[in-house]
Amino acid sequence: MGPIYSLADFLDMLRRRVGLISTVVIAGCFASVFWALSVPHLYRSSEVIQIEQPKISDELARSTVEGSAARRLQLIEQQLMARGNLVDLIDEFGLYDNLPSLLLSEKVDLLRESVSITGVAAVREGFADDGAIAVLTISAEMDSPEKARDVAHALADATRALAASQRQEQTRGTLEFFQNQEAALAAEVAKLEADFAAYRSENDISIEGSLEFRRSELGSLNDALLELDREIISAELGLKNLDRSGSIRAATIERQEEELTRLLDSLKTQRQLLQDRRAALSASIETTPEVQRTLAEFERRRSQLRDQLDVISARRSEAEVGFTLERAARGERFITLEEAQVADYPVSMSRKSRVIMGAVAFSVIALVLAFLLELRRPVLRTARQMQRETGLLPVVSIPETSPSKERKGLARLWQDRREAGLQGRSARLARNPDAR
After folding, report:
1. Which of 49, 16, 108, 22 shows the shortest CA–CA distance to 366?
2. Tens of pLDDT along 264-274?
3. Which of 41, 61, 133, 432 is deepest in the core (most CB within 10 A)?
4. Taking the model in full, what pTM does it have?
């Protein structure tokens, strides 16, 4: 400890540096009082919100709001702490009007630090953590209890409004999405049905089993052609075998020849028509495999679209149920358990504690300064210090005899008391040399 080795050395240092110590301590007390008076009290007000689970079980009517309550509350907190919302609060309640030198951004930062939103997790069901929140506490610290209450209550109202709006927007968005998907799929199915009908009409396959029908018709045409060929042959033979020997009248022969000729022409015309029809049927039967593949593709695509439409319709129905729940306030609700109240006592340190803490701090600073001055001028002031530092025992101690200027009042009394103390100390050391 340098020149300080005992309590007596410490007391001597205090006596020598009493002026410095007193000055620092008194100045520190004044500074502590000014600090305590300049720092305003802070008051805290809190509003407690209970998060009530949906009244209807998800097994009966499932809500379409996804995500845990903790994540939704995190999003709400980010929206509440946005600069625009905080500026509105500052303007509405006149926050920090007593600090006109602060910039708006600094006021926003102060308000962010003064507001806290904490949640208490709900009891787990099983081993999985579903992120459910049971209680939400919104606190605000301000320089007046009324402002703290107003800010906490305003933030709680905004939290409830944002939570309800967020859930309704999410359910409405889900419902609109599935409605649009259902309408798009229904339009696509209708278009496919129209294309399918046009293709069937174009390829003359308006009835099911058209291929078998055409093949049956082709067989009938072949039988009819065969019968016509027989009749044509019979007519040609009849025309060839007419009796022209003169035994029959010429008019009769001519009339029979004309009848056979007309019959033959009619049979040939019928035969040509049947051949044309058979050719058309044969051509259509040759293209039927490609048509069947196209029809199968139509059927497969229609089946896929109808399956998708069924799924989307079911989900749209669930989305309608979820939207109805939220619109009727049957889903998750925020209920006020404790409304924000005016604080009775400040939460900041009391002024008396600030003054005491400042006085103690400046007392320590004064002692440190006095000790540093002792280290700066390490003077051997007593016989004991002389023996401790050099190992030499002084024979006699001569007190300081330099004339001092005349002092008056308290200074003179202090000087007289100091000289008397030094004389008494010298006398004690003279009577007891071992005490050195």
Report:
1. 22
2. 888 888 888 88
3. 133
4. 0.54
